[in-house]
Amino acid sequence: MARRHAPAIVAVVGLIVLGCGLSGSTYAQDAGPADAAGRIRTQLAAQHDVEISSEVAAKIARLPLNEGDAFAKGDLLVAFDCGLYQAQLAKAQATAAAAQREQEVTGKLAALHSAGALDVAQAQARAKEAAADAAYMRTTVGKCSIRAPFAGRVAKREAAPFEFVTPGKPLLEILDAGPLDVKLIVPSTWLAWLKPGAKFTVHVDELDADYPAQVVRLGASIDPVSQTVGVSGRILGTHLELLPGMSGWAAFPGHAR
C-alpha cells in the first residue's frame, strides 16, 4: 500500500513546492523599496569617512582633539615623538653631503688623470645611495605629524596621548563637515525618468523636518533579484543640525511608485 501511494504523495509535495516557488516569485516582483506615496527610505552619510592610522612606530606626543570636536583643513590631528627619526635624518643628511663632496673630488681627480673611471663610478653610486637614505628619512620624519585632509569633525578617538603605537594602529575616525550625502535604493524602472541633477526632498525622522536635495549619481548596476538600483544624492545648503547616520524618507515631486 505504501509503495502504491508513494507517487501520489510525491506529486502532492511537488505541487506544494511549485506553488511556494510561484508565490515567492510573485512577492519578489510586487515588493519594492517605495511606500504607497512613492517615498524611498534613505540615510544620510558624510562625503568622506576616514580612519586615520599611524605610519610610524612612535609615542604620541599630541592628540589635541576629542570625539565631536571640529577642525579645519590643515589642522594638526596627531603629532608623534620622533626624536630618534630626526637624529637618523641628521646622520643620513651628513652622510649624503660627504658622499656628494667625495663625488665632486673624484670627478676633479679624474679630469687630472689621477682617478680612474671605476673610482668615478663608485663615488657616484655612493652619493646616490646616501641621497636615497636621506630622502627615506625625510619621508619618515614627514609622517611624524598628521594634518587634516579636509574640514570636519572627530567621530571616534581610538588612541591617547603618550601611547606608543605601531604602523597601522587606528588613531582617529574623522568625518567630512561638508554637505551630507543621501543614500537610497530605488526601483530600476525609475531610471526612465530619474537622472543626475534631479531635485527631491528628504524628510529627516530625527528632526521631523524637510531638506532639499539633488541626485548626484546613479548606481553602476541593477540588482537582478530585487530589480533595484542604488542612488546617491546630496543635501543642498549648509545645515549644522544634520548629522551622518540620520535617516528618513526621500520624496520626488510629481513621481509616485
Account of the protein in words:
This protein is an alpha+beta fold and 257 residues long. 33% of the residues lie in helices and 32% in strands. The chain has three helices and 14 strands. Strands 1-10-13-12-11-14 form a six-stranded antiparallel barrel. The longest helix has 29 residues, at 2-30.
- Could you give the count of β-strands? 14
Largest sheet: 6 strands, antiparallel, barrel
Q: Order of strands across the widest beta sheet?
A: 1-10-13-12-11-14
What is the helix/strand order? HEEEEEHHEEEEEEEEE
Quote the beta fraction: 25-35%
Unreliable sequence segments: 1-32
Features:
257 residues; alpha+beta; six-stranded antiparallel β-barrel; four-stranded antiparallel sheet; 33% helix; 32% strand
